[in-house]
Amino acid sequence: MKLPAVLQVDRAVGLGSLAGLFVRPSSRSLLCMGLLCSVLLAGAATAQTNAAKAPSVLATLIKWTPLMAEGFALNLMISFSAMLLGTVSGIGLGLATISLRRPVRRISWITTQFFRNSPWLALLFFCVYALPHQATLFGASFIIPDWTKAVLGLALPIMANVAEIVRGTVQAVPTIQWQSATALGFSRWLTLRLVILPQCIKPAIPPWMNWYAILTMATPLASIVGVAEALQVTTEALVSEARFELLIPMYLYLLTWFFIYCYPIALLTERLERKFGVIT
Amino acid sequence: MEAFFRHLYETTGYNFSIFYDRRDELNFVHGLGVSLELMAISLVGSLAIGIIGAWLGGMSSQLVRGSVRVYVQALRNTPPLIQLYFFFFALGSVLSVIGPNGRPMPLLSNFTWACIGLSAVAGAFNIEIFRAGIESVPRNIRDAATALGLGRTKAFFLVILPLAFRLCLPALNNNLVNLLKSTTMAYAIGVPEVLYVSAQIWSDEFNATEMMLVVLVVYAGITTALIGVMQYVERRLKVPGYGA
């Protein structure tokens, strides 16, 4: 059976928005997707008639800039928090992978590999679904905002990758340094803290920054689980404007924001890599 | 097995519906097929983009080299999800034809856009990886190829690329695993891949935790398989005298 064009597209995305209505976290993003698809098709027909009286594309972009900036600030906040959480737990996990105790080493290795090789989006979903919707603390019950769960979901892969950086850099320190520290009467923990780890900081910085950039570019994934970050705001703006000719400039505008933030980080990482002479 | 999972559900409440419900099973298997297809196409696509990009990046023309650089930096430093939205919603809406009933109809499906989007990003990373590999091919091998009368193109495809390919296998391995993982992003534009059908199933059966577990295990399996294949390739293609 041949469906009309509108239905053909809506069937694919519309199913998503229908499914979205039944799942627990905000269904806004999926609903938006369905709406946006309708905008695409309806907008094409009405674009010519609207174009005459509608404000220019540039004016519309400027109009939405403050809201998009708010969304982008949430992206940055998610990236900072997830990086902090991921780094702290990753250092712990990384040290566990070089533990002398075999079971500790095994378990932390499996944990690292599991979180490194799982898709980010799946981990994000997992956190959003597995964590309770609201929590009770000292008798007061409050709703856990979705973005904190997104932070946790994004921190997990960061944790695993930071653990790999820690393990890699520690193993890159020549064995003779461990031996000389032992000869000087240092315990294993003291050797690690005073001799080995200080040498690991420098080579760990470029890959760590690289992961920060990757994390920042992954934060728009949070829009899929209903966090009102920049991509979500942009999509909602497009739905409410319902103007066909805005689609390309609006998304390009948002891409530019991320590029302006991430490109300098990439350049700096490259420079530090060359300076420290590490190949990662 | 069917009986086992039904029993598991009845006794413990762990609802792995895809193992006993025929409809869920078909849906899931279909999603798995779409995922694998998506992975295969974007893997090949990204490798092709990587090789062609690295070749163009070594051209003498400033313009060609500059455009490759812009392409690589633009795709590497912007969020892949927004790129996918840009491809599907923005470019997809421009690339439409008037359907038989007089209404505009998208020219490319969301599956095609997902393939294009994923190949484009992974391809940008591959260009960088191949470029690094090509740079590490010793200068005198190039000179030797020239001395044997090979032209630029022939020297690239017959001598330099086969060597560079071996040198950049570890980095390539990493990037391809990343590509496999990022296919889940196609969920966002409604491609019915594994994550998408799982979301459909758990909204019917309310078994989100179990389905997430299945998805994670499936991906762990697929990435492990790819890593295995890549390690085999790495061993087979090892150049004597390089690496440990």
Oligomerization state: heterodimer
The overall strand count of chain A is 2
Q: Please name the fourth-level CATH homologous superfamily of chain B.
A: MetI-like
Spatial order of the strands in the main sheet of chain A?
1-2
Order of strands in the sheet with the most strands of chain B?
1-2
CATH topology of chain B: MetI-like fold
Question: Can you offer a commentary on this structure?
Answer:
The complex is a heterodimer of chains A (280) and B (244). Chain A is mainly α and 280 residues long. Chain A folds into 2 domains: 53 residues, no CATH class; 222 residues, MetI-like fold, CATH 1.10.3720. Chain A is 78% helix and 3% strand. Chain A is built from 10 helices and 2 strands, in the order αααααββααααα. A two-stranded antiparallel sheet of chain A has the order 1-2. Chain B has one domain: Orthogonal Bundle (MetI-like fold). The mean pLDDT of chain B is 88. With 244 residues, chain B is mostly helical. Chain B has 10 helices and 2 strands. In chain B, helix 2 runs antiparallel to helix 3, helix 4 packs across helix 5 and helix 5 crosses helix 7. Chain B has a two-stranded antiparallel sheet with strand order 1-2. Helix content of chain B is 75%, strand content 2%. In chain B, strand 1 and strand 2 form a beta hairpin. The chains are: A mainly alpha (280), B mainly alpha (244).
